[in-house]
Fold Ciliary dynein heavy chain.
Amino acid sequence: MGDKEDVDTRLEFMSEYILKSLKLKIEKWTKFITGDERHLLYKFFDMPKFEVIVFRLNTSGLLTCSTTFPPISRGKMVYFLRNSDQKITQSNFRTTLTIGEMSGNVLMDLSVMADEVIGPLLCNPENQKGWPKIVKNDMKRHVNELRNLMHQLKGDMSSQIMLPMPEGVENIYHAEAKLKER
C-alpha cells in the first residue's frame, strides 16, 4: 500500500469487520477487492438507490456481495445498511451505515428475535402504560402464539416434536426461585 492518504477508510473499515465476522483471511478480501464485484461496492457508496450490501461466502468459498439479501443462504452473512439517502463518503460512513450479521439459519434468528426482543418489548409493563387491559392481554396472547409457532417450526425443521409452552410458564421459574430462597 502507498501513503495513508491513498487508503479508502470505508473499505478498510468494511474489510476489518467482514474478516473478523466471517473469520476469513486477508487473501479472501484481496481476491474480492481486485475482482469485478468491487464495482458493486462503489455503486453502493455512490448511489442512494442501493439501500443494503450483503457479503457472504459462495459455494466455492469466495467472498461475494450483492445489493439484496439472498433468498436462501447456507452460511453467515454480513450486511451494511444505508441510513440515509446521502452518498457514503470517507467522512460520514460511520454515521451513515448500520452494520449487521445474519446466520445461515434465518428461522433460528427469527426465533431468537421473537423470544429475546419482540416478546420482552411488547410484554414489558413499562411499555404498556396507558394501554387498556384488553389490549395488554391480547398482546400477550399474540406474542405467546408467535413464540410457540417459532418453537414448533424449529422442531419441524429438526424432525423433533416440540410442544407449545402454555401462557404464564415463566411464573413457574419465579415460584421456583422464591422456594429456593426459603
User: Anything to note?
Assistant: The chain is about 50% helix and 10% strand.
